[in-house]
Amino acid sequence: MSTEVTRGSGPRRARLYVTRIDPWSVAKAAFLLALTIGVVIVVAVWLLWWLLDSTGVLETLSRSLNDIVGSATTGVDLVELFSFSRVVGGALVIAAVEVILVSLLATIFAFMYNLTVGITGGLEVVLSDDL
Question: Rounded to two decimals, what is the model's pTM?
Fold first, then answer.
């Protein structure tokens, strides 16, 4: 980072230019953020499934769907289709894919930023100590 400090009658200001981002640090931070989001996804799906199951929405929808399109031999069982293990397993798969993609994409973008900073000059950040 390069620094330029401006002094005058007003508050002090420092202009910083972000000229390099460490891809390993970006990968670690992105992994932890994505892991947190993945846990939130799984917990939210679990809470939604629990709410729908405890209120009987799945059974009601299954009965209504069987009344509309099903017959005695080919009934649709939404309770079995949306069982706890299937729903939470699907949420775990989605969360795992999200963790991998976010970590990889953030690291690739850090490498891309480092490659393009020679052309753009970097990101300018102005810090000030206004009191």
Answer: 0.75
